[in-house]
Amino acid sequence: PCTYSGTVMDNAIRESVYKVNSSYKFERVDALLFATIAEGFRPGGANYFDAISQLGVDPKFLGYDPAKATSSENGVNSMLLDDRMRKNALIYQIDWEGIQLNTMLYGYPVTTNGDDAEIKGVELDLTTLISDALQLNLSVTMLEAKLTEDTLTTPEIDGQKGDRLPGSAEIHATLALRYETEFANLMRWWARLAGSYSGNVNAYLNDNQINQLISPPAPSENRFFDKLPSYTVWNLTTGLDRDQWSLFAYADNVLDEKYIVGSSTYELGPVDDPLSRQHYYGRPRTFGVNLRYSF
Known about the structure:
Blueprint: E1 2-4, E2 7-9, E3 19-25, E4 31-42, E5 45-46, H1 51-55, E6 63-64, E7 67-80, E8 85-97, E9 100-105, E10 108-113, E11 117-129, E12 134-147, E13 151-154, E14 157-159, E15 171-182, E16 188-198, E17 201-202, E18 208-211, E19 218-221, E20 227-228, E21 231-242, E22 245-252, E23 260-265, E24 277-281, E25 286-293
Antiparallel strand pairs: 1-2, 3-4, 4-7, 5-6, 7-8, 8-11, 9-10, 11-12, 12-15, 13-14, 15-16, 16-21, 17-20, 18-19, 21-22, 22-25, 23-24
């Protein structure tokens, strides 16, 4: 059970879920094929309103139901070039029933259930030794996350089939180079340069929408919609290791990229009023030194 404003809601769920996986390893090449299909769910819960606001809230917004998901994935893991290169690839799909979505109601953040949604993705990961001292790592994730049915819940969540799910970047990629060498006194020096790219993200379902919760249905602006721009961040780390001692220095966000990682909008106030919208930024350029001793 869960509670809101001192009242107990019965939100119990009793249901079986399953998971099935299979794999096949090739004998002549170092490669493993695998496949998995599974069910899962996110539990439901209660939304908080003060005692006065609660009186005017439609009871369906006081709580939200569990969301059920069915996922399937197929992939391959392989080693090549005398184990100097590792390649992993994965294709997956997640089908959501009653997906949980976030909005604002009476000035309070609210979770509510939408209809069905679908997530399709591809992940590629490559690690290779360019030389005995230099290693390269590259990973790419491509994602398509969208509603597969119209979602009519509140005026701010009037999602249409095909709308992109909030919080889902269509592409994310990382690139890293690591150099390592050892001196005659058994001291090891290493350095790592890593870059990360994240595509743009929608904070909510859509921009301009057809509000079907009013009569007659008419176009309206989703006042909470916000598109967070793409960004790239580079980090640099270098260090010395010997026996149990380790000393390293780091510079995070070397180029001092100003990037947004989150957004929230107040229900009251104009959409274009900067005081009614908050952006949350990632860490600025940061330097540090760390000394460790392992017992």
